[in-house]
Amino acid sequence: MSNSWFQFKQFRVEQGDSAMKVCTDACIQGAWTARHLQSSPHPERILDIGAGTGLLGLMLAQQTTSIIHAVELDPASARQGMVNFGSSPWATRLWLAEGDIRTFKFEDRYDFIISNPRSSGKT
């Protein structure tokens, strides 16, 4: 049985209620993307599609000064992601909404979009 949380150096990801748990692939993707963004012009606004626990948004917030918006379809995962965003040191730059990205109404434009392609196995 996995832990209900995953501790990083600067933040903790609660994941007990989320369908999307912290995994090696997501950690590698987040670290690689954060490194890439450090060597290119920093995006002002980032969109995280299918945020799950908010892991990717948190990893990018840790390494950039970007405003990060996230959308998550699964209600339990969205609630978990909101908690993780709210308890992070970067809470003022993070926002997560529950909804379907295909019908979500955006008020902003984004300079960078990230999504973890990993599937929870549910259809």
TrEMBL record:
One of the GO BP terms on file: methylation
PANTHER family: TRNA1(VAL) (ADENINE(37)-N6)-METHYLTRANSFERASE (PTHR47739:SF1)
InterPro entries linked: SAM-dependent_MTases_sf, Small_mtfrase_dom, tRNA_Adenine-N(6)_MTase
Record's protein name: Methyltransferase
Superkingdom of the organism of origin: Bacteria
Residue ranges annotated for the Methyltransferase small domain, each copy included: 35-117
CDD domains referenced in this protein's UniProt entry, alphabetically: AdoMet_MTases
Swiss-Prot/TrEMBL keywords: Methyltransferase, S-adenosyl-L-methionine, Transferase
The organism of origin for this protein: Chitinophaga pollutisoli
Gene Ontology MF term list: methyltransferase activity
